[in-house]
Amino acid sequence: MTMRFSEAQLKDVMAELPDWTVREEKLYRQYKFPDFVAAFGFMTQVALLAEKMDHHPEWSNVYNRVDISLTTHDLGGISMRDITLAKQIDDHLGK
Q1: Does the model's pTM come out above 0.85?
Q2: CA 15 to CA 36: how far, in whole Å?
Q3: Tell me, what's the pLDDT at 36?
Q4: d(Cα 56, Cα 47) in Å, to the nearest integer?
Q5: How far is 42 from 93, CA to CA, in rounded Å?
Q6: pLDDT confidence of 95, banded at 50, 70, 90?
Q7: Are 66 and 30 in contact (CB under 8 A)?
Q8: Torsion, Cα of 41, 43, 46, 51 (10° steps)
Q9: What mean pLDDT is reported for the chain?
């Protein structure tokens, strides 16, 4: 079973995700794209990744911007499931 990260554990693992930050006890990252179609296409691809994991992001889209927050609601914080999905999203973009 996945466990919620302690503050110390989270600090260590965040070194692996330099473009992500922690906001309100959630992993957070903002992505910008050339236009709405590119942003929406990205969201579609992330939706497929998330569905495979049965772990869904909190997100919003405004024109070319996508804001993503990841948290494990059952645990009330960030877990390895969030880190794994964040890495998959970044890998998908080649970042």
Answers
A1: yes
A2: 30
A3: 97
A4: 8
A5: 9
A6: low
A7: yes
A8: -110
A9: 91
Cα-Cα-Cα-Cα dihedral sign, residues 7, 11, 14, 18: positive
Cα gap 87→37, rounded to integer Å:
23
Chain-centroid distance, C-alpha 17: 10
State pLDDT tens for residues 14-72.
888 999 999 998 999 999 999 999 999 999 999 999 999 999 999 999 999 999 999 99
Cα 47 versus chain centre, distance: 11
CA distance 72 to 62: 24
Q: How many residues does the chain have?
A: 95
